[in-house]
Amino acid sequence: MAKLRCSVTGTHSKSARPRGRALFLFDQSRPRAASAQQKGDNTVVLVQRNERAAQAAQTIASLADRFPAAFAVYAARRKPLKIGIFDDLLAATAGSIPADDLEFPLQRYTRSNEYLAACHAGAIRLDLEGNPAGVVTANEARWAAATAEEQHRRYQGAAVVPAQPQTTPPPAPAPTLKRLSLSDLKRAAQARRETTS
Known about the structure:
By secondary structure, the protein is mainly alpha-helical.
């Protein structure tokens, strides 16, 4: 049996049983790329996704250092950004961050659940300096709520089904039965004895 290495902790194991949410085990007996090509599995794709996510997090951290009034590393502190902030970032960074390296981190930033929750109707949008640059409209707030709901359903593994308007009225509540008292039970027993005798 080949030794396996966890990509997160770097520990070696003989079992392929994951112990955490983001554990990816790789066969140490062959190089990763060759193993993935021969087996046809998705191990290389998973590693690339993790690396891409890590690069996006680094880019967001550098943007938060450079533009602290607009960007936040911690998702709970994120506020709606100005529409067209991508073009402003390209101009402000003056090519130090290529457009291709900026697109994915910005998409991850603006699609986070906390950012979408901050996009409620009337929320102020910020430019790179933290100055107000518009407000979130009701349409944009509905889109943000729908996107957050879709992401939540996708995360839960449920199929994304658009809400259907309810055409039939809800069923009437079931009638409540009166609870019988002791005297009611005695009367019912007496009536039953009279009918049988």
